Amino acid sequence: MRQFEDEGFGRVIRHIQDEVEFEPEYYNPDYLDRRITARMRRQEVEEYDDYLEILQSDSREKEALMDSLTINVTNFFRNQEMWEALRPVLRDLTDEHRRVRVWSAPCADGREPYSVSMLSRDDRKIDDSRLTIVGTDISDEALENARAGTYETTRTTDIGEELSLLDDPEKYVNVEDNTFTVKPEIRDSIQFERHDLIQDGPRRNCDLVFCRNLLIYIDSEFKIPIFNTLTDSMQDGSYLVIGMTETIPQELRDEFEPVNKRCRIYQYTP
Ligand SMILES: C[S@@+](CC[C@H](N)C(=O)[O-])C[C@H]1O[C@@H](n2cnc3c(N)ncnc32)[C@H](O)[C@@H]1O
Questions:
Q1: What's the distance, CA 258 to chain centroid?
Q2: d(CA 44, CA 128)
C-alpha cells in the first residue's frame, strides 16, 4: 500500500480498499482526492477522519462514494466526430476480413458497444454480419445495466440527441416517453463480460479495441500494464481507439501509427 502525505487521507483510502469493491491503488491520488473531498463537501465535513466515521456507519454514503469513484459516465456515440472517422475503418475491416472481433473495454453501461452495433447496421457500407462485439467492465452493476439495455432521458442526459448520428434510430431502439430500450437484435449482438484491465489477461485476436476514458483516471504506473493487456489482445494491423483527451505512453508510441490523430484512432504496427 502506498503512503500518502496526509495520514487521514491514507486512512480513508485503506478503508475503501478493505470495505468497498474498488481498487484505489490503480487510480491517480489527485483524482481520488478530488472525488473524496467532493463527497466530504456534500456531507459538510472538513477532516478526512470525520468523513471516515461517516463511511464506517452509513452504507448509503459508501454507495455514493463508490458511484462517484467508478466514473461510469458514458454516452451513445460519445465524441461524434470520432464515430464519423471510424466509419471507413469499420467499412475496410468488414470488407477485408470474414470475422472482425471488436472489444469495448471498458464498456460501462454498454452504450459504446451498442453504438458500434447500431452504426454498423445503419451504414450500408459496413457489413455488420461479420462483426463479433464484446463489451467488458470491472463493474458488475454497469454490466447489469448494459445487459438490460434500457436508458432514460433525464434533465442532464438526452438519449434521443445521443442517437442522432444514426439515420434511423428507431430501427434499433424502442422509445416510450423518456425510456429507450435497445431492441433484442442489437442487445443479442453484444456479449458482456466482467474483466479487469489491470488484473485479467488479454483476449484473443481483436481487430478493433476501444479503451476510452479510463486511462485519464489511472495512476501512471498502471498504464503500461493496461497497454500490455490491450496489445497482447491485438495483432499486426489491428486498430485501437483511446479517449479524445488521452495519449499513448511515450515508450509505446513507435508501435502505433495514427489513423486519425485528433480522434485518437491508431493502427498497431509492432
Ligand atoms: C468513464 S467509463 C468509460 C466508458 C466508455 N469507454 C466511454 O468512453 O464512454 C469508465 C469505466 O471504467 C471502468 N473501470 C474502472 N477501472 C477498471 C479496470 N481496472 N478494468 C476495467 N474497467 C474498469 C468503470 O467501471 C467505468 O465503467
A1: 21
A2: 52
Domain boundaries, the chain: 7-69, 80-268
Look at the domain 80-268 and name its fold.
Answer: Rossmann fold (3.40.50)
Pocket-testing residue among 32, 151, 214, 240, ligand 1, by greatest number of atoms within 8 A of Cβ: 214
Q: Which residues line ligand 1 (CB under 6 A)?
A: 26, 70-75, 78, 106, 108, 112, 137-139, 142, 196-198, 212-214, 243
- Crossing angle of helices 7-19 and 48-57, in 10° steps, is 20
Residue with the three cell numbers 505512453: 249
Q: Whose CA is nearest to atom 6 of ligand 1?
A: 212
pLDDT tens, N- to C-terminus, the chain (270 residues): 566 778 899 999 888 888 776 778 888 888 899 999 999 999 999 999 999 999 999 989 988 888 788 777 899 999 999 999 999 999 999 999 999 999 999 999 999 999 999 999 999 999 999 999 999 998 888 999 999 999 999 988 899 999 999 999 999 999 999 999 999 999 999 999 999 998 899 999 999 999 999 998 888 889 999 999 999 999 999 999 999 999 999 999 999 999 999 999 999 999
Looking at ligand 1, which atom is closest to the CA of residue 108? 27
